[in-house]
Amino acid sequence: MALPDGFLDELRNRVSIAQVAGRKVTWDTRKSNAAKGDMWAPCPFHGEKTASFHVDDAKGFYYCFGCHAKGDALSFVRETENVGFMDAVEILASEAGMTMPAPDPQAQKRAEQRAGLAEVMEMAVAWTRLQLSTAAAQAARDYLAQRGLTPETLKRFEIGFAPDSRGAMLGHLRDKGVPEADIVAAGLAIKPDDGGAAYDRFRGRIMFPIRDARGRAIAFGGRAMDPNARAKYLNSPETALFDKGRALYNIKAAREASGRSGALIVAEGYMDVIALAQAGLAHAVAPLGTAITDNQLQMLWRICPEPVIALDGDRAGIDAAIRLIDVALPLLEPGRALRFCVLPQGQDPDDLIKAEGAAAMQALLEKAVPMVDLLWRRETEGRSFDSPERRAALDARLRDSLKLIRDPILQSHYRDAIREKRAELFGPTGGRAPDRGFGNGRGYGGGYEDGYRGGNGGGFGGGSGRRNGRPFQGRNPMAPPLPSTRASILARRDADVTVSAARIRESAILLGCLNHPSLLAEIEPELDALRFLCPDLDALRRRILQVAEAALHADGITDDGSALRAEVIRLHGSDPADILMAVGQVRDNPHLRPAATPESALLVIREEMTKHRAAQGAEAERLEAETEITGVADEGLTWRLQQAAAAREASMRSRASDPRGGEEDTAALSNALQDMIEREIWRKRRE
Fold it and tell me: Residue ranges of the CHC2-type zinc fingers (predicted)?
């Protein structure tokens, strides 16, 4: 069946070729660079011992230097699974969470139309490039030279010219045998509604071809030479080829350059991108005359996990950045972020590079600030907070914004950052919001001045540590902690308590699996569904699951699991047990060691899994409850927090019992914790 417009492009954007190929090959860790998506392995299509099979995840393609096999994720699935094209699409769509469309008898006709329009666009690109060298384009050439564009740059970006004529392009394409209807459908000509003669859309303009991620010409951007033109820049209309909300200027070349640099710049327009590329910063793209959309954000993150939004230093640039906040907040995830670089007042990248050089531009990009700074600036700049009502209004606005962040842990970190900025604002300035730039936040912690405590009073204040304007003095001095306490991962001052506690549990689970791999046959579904908070341990969890799945689908896992463990160590590059046993609480647990019985190890692993789920449920409820605090907590809210705390304390109090005599007690505790999770005892029951 034919697929609807954009379905395959969306599928390719969502699917990682490295992940798809990673199920069939074993990556060479010495030769691969996972951070850049540059992966090497022995080829799955022909027998070999060397790693000649190359995957470029940023470009979405693979190539074997031995047998010359090449293609994308779809062709890889077709060849390795021995399935047809539509079956391969269905397999990848299922993995990407996309629903296969119902059969559409018109889709094939539209696909053929798009292919025809793409050919028309290529003919138009070639013609406009030739027109740039004509006498009619002298003013355009002078302008481009004045802007500092070299002949190499003009060729690289295929810059052309459309003569100031109503029918020059139309007549050329007709002479090439292109039907007028196709020229109009490609957005190159306009057909009046009153039935009059068609005429060229682009007249007297410098032409910038717009290509999609696959390199197909899909549209034009035209810069008017007439200073009195109604539109200085004019883009093609939306067509069967061109959806401006799903396209980015220079996307194909920037994706390739980003794979080498590990960075991505989002500028405002064509000339910004071209100036950056000419200065050696080829990893730049630009939206096409609109605010950045959620689809464009997904495209950016597919290329780079933390693009830098580079904005002109004028009011329009700042406003564009501020509008982007509400689009981006619901889409943020751990490892998916945005940073912002605002140029000096009245300058764009081209101005700055000409005045101070590429090094100055690079220095500004390296100082780009996180989005939380921009959010804070949006809500505070130029405002006064000299009354409780104004401060409460600020808290309410910030709380509503942070609710848009779906990931609870990321939302928690945003709250921490807002508390820090709030503590600085409500300091000696007396509640006045200065007109500050990005990145001026310093001290952290605290709350309102004059002894106001924000803990149970809602908002984001963290408590000032003062009572009636005087420093609060504790009653009794505390005894110094023992050396073993100071060394604990939970006691480190720079450690996030939630993540540190999770690291203990996650390390215990993985060490038990490594030392007793045969247990994976029983717990593999639970381990797969468990959500890890530590990225390095989560990567190890996935690696263990990958090896276990392969073993379970082959000959199974032997009693001692030595082959499975050896394969995990080979893929990891070293024995991960060394990292896991660095945590004292894990290292000292006798039931996780290789000499322990599988029964006692399974008991501990299941208990740690249950504790992990209980702690995460309690944390999620705590974060939700925190957002609802607007004054003194009511009895229902207090009860919820007490129940969440009880669940957390019970999960952290439990310890594996002696397997020779305490299995029943430990099992009972594990069952009790699991029951608490299933009943979600901490959750408020809404009528």
Answer: 43-67
